[in-house]
Design brief:
By secondary structure, the chain is of the alpha+beta class. It has two domains: 123 residues; 102 residues, Winged helix-like DNA-binding domain superfamily/Winged helix DNA-binding domain (Arc Repressor Mutant, subunit A, Orthogonal Bundle), CATH 1.10.10.10. 68% of the residues lie in helices and 10% in strands. It has seven helices and six strands. It starts with a helix and ends with a strand.
Length: 233
């Protein structure tokens, strides 16, 4: 049992490390792509540099030529402002894409883990860490959640709990015999089955009730939980 628990813990730890490494790799790849993109973008001041060289290398005499170069310089300044805003937009989009991709991967991992957990529940029954039965208050605490039961449902659940602690499986007739105080021969199998149905109806949640109270073919009914988690108060 300890080896199984240890293997499960190790598998979960390995899975967590794989997820962390995968997310880190995704972020690193996107950061590297962003850095390479920004390094290969043209210089926003390149246009102004060319105009400045034109001022220095060209002997301008007419007023029209000087005015043309002034217009070019103004255009270069506007181009630099626009290009700077484009750089900011690209940076924001990269950050947004990184966040969305990381969120998508994290959500996918959560869905896979949830599906695996639901698969284990379907195969093994509900995982109960504690089951506290309070006869005085007609209540049961299941994994910290309180359920109010009727007197009849409480009697049925108490009988099943005591049987589970003794590793017994009770038929419907045996359940009816224990509750009613009659002999098993005088009790009907259908009466016990009716008590089980009422208990499940009282619990309400279909998944909880169906997985908590198991019906073993040709043997009877049993609580599908570890007997060590049961407490009777």
């Amino acid at each position: 049992m300890r080896e199984t628990i240890s293997s499960a813990i190790e598998a979960r730890q390995v899975g967590n490390r794989v997820v962390v490494i995968g997310l880190t790799a995704i972020v690193a790849v996107l950061v590297l792509a962003g850095v390479l993109l920004f390094l290969n973008l043209p210089d926003a001041n390149a246009f102004n540099t060319r105009v400045e060289r034109l001022f220095v290398e060209t002997d301008l005499t007419s007023q029209a030529e000087i005015r043309l170069l002034e217009i070019l310089a103004q255009s270069g300044t506007q181009f630099e402002a626009v290009f700077t805003s484009y750089r900011l937009i690209i940076f924001v989009l990269l950050v947004f894409a990184t966040a969305m991709l990381v969120a998508a991967v994290a959500l996918l991992v959560m869905l896979v883990a949830l599906n695996r957990r639901m698969g284990r529940i379907e195969r093994k029954g509900i995982e109960v860490n504690s089951l506290v039965i309070s006869r005085d208050q007609n209540a049961v605490m299941l994994n910290g959640f309180e359920f109010k039961l009727t007197q009849a449902a409480m009697e049925t659940l108490a009988v099943l709990a005591e049987a589970r602690m003794d590793d017994d499986v009770l038929s419907g007739a045996q359940i009816e015999a224990v509750i009613s105080g009659r002999t098993e021969a005088d009790c009907d199998e259908a009466a016990g089955a009716t008590r089980i149905k009422r208990l499940r109806d009282t619990l309400g949640n279909q998944m909880v009730s169906e997985l908590l109270v198991k019906n073993i073919a040709r043997r009877g009914y049993v609580l599908a939980i570890d007997k060590d988690v049961i407490r009777m108060v």
